Amino acid sequence: MNEDSFQFAVESTRVVLPPQRRLETFGTTFVNYYLVTEAMDAASLSHVREGRIEAEKPQILSPHHFSRLMVEGFGEKAEAYAAFISENAHRFAFLKHGFRFRKNEIRSYEVHEPLETVLGRVRDEVKGKDEAMSAVVTGVEDGWEVCLIKFMIDLIHTSAPWQVEEMRRRGLLGGGEQS
């Protein structure tokens, strides 16, 4: 998978139903995901993947730590994308509040219906469960793991300011001592 394919997967990722809460500051967060994609070579064939991503508590990291970005349980394409992020850390500055991603408990199935129909049904089912840390995401089939990482990066990005403030309030961060 090349940079253009990564970019296409990233740009195609859309959160249909976001989690109701932010990531935890002082503990591990488990995010239930429901990822719906559409087959590129078959009309009205959608793929649904359900699983859980574990985001460990945030750590303040210096730029040299980007080379240690770990993705466990993901395939080659996701690992290649993580390597791309590491090589281009300057473009992903918000990751200084990095996490180790661990993907597990995957259930995958096909539905012979159009993407939007399946998305609507999955969204309604997840809303009915009332799970605060569940999300429905859509993206591209060929880069589905990249879509999951993009979703998590966005969740990190929106959680980070709140987490930094919480760390400051507890005296864990000084005035410019974030490294």
Short description:
This protein has four helices and six strands. By secondary structure, the chain is of the alpha/beta class.
Describe the protein in words.
The chain is an alpha/beta fold and 179 residues long. It has one domain (3-169). 35% of the residues lie in helices and 25% in strands. The protein is built from four helices and six strands. The protein has helices at residues 3-12, 76-87, 115-129, 144-169, and strands at residues 14-17, 29-38, 46-55, 71-72, 101-111, 134-140. Strands 1-6-2-3-5-4 form a six-stranded mixed sheet, sandwiched between helices. Strand 2 and strand 3 form a beta hairpin. Helix 1 (3-12) packs across helix 4. The protein is globular. The two termini are 32 Å apart.
Using the CA coordinates, give the radius of gyration.
17 Å
Distance between the termini: 32 Å
Number of helices: 4
**Segments where pLDDT lies below 50 for 5+ residues?**
93-98, 175-179
Descriptive tags:
179 residues, alpha/beta, 4 helices, 35% helix, 25% strand, globular
How are the secondary structure elements laid out?
Blueprint: H1 3-12, E1 14-17, E2 29-38, E3 46-55, E4 71-72, H2 76-87, E5 101-111, H3 115-129, E6 134-140, H4 144-169
Parallel strand pairs: 2-6, 4-5
Antiparallel strand pairs: 1-6, 2-3, 3-5
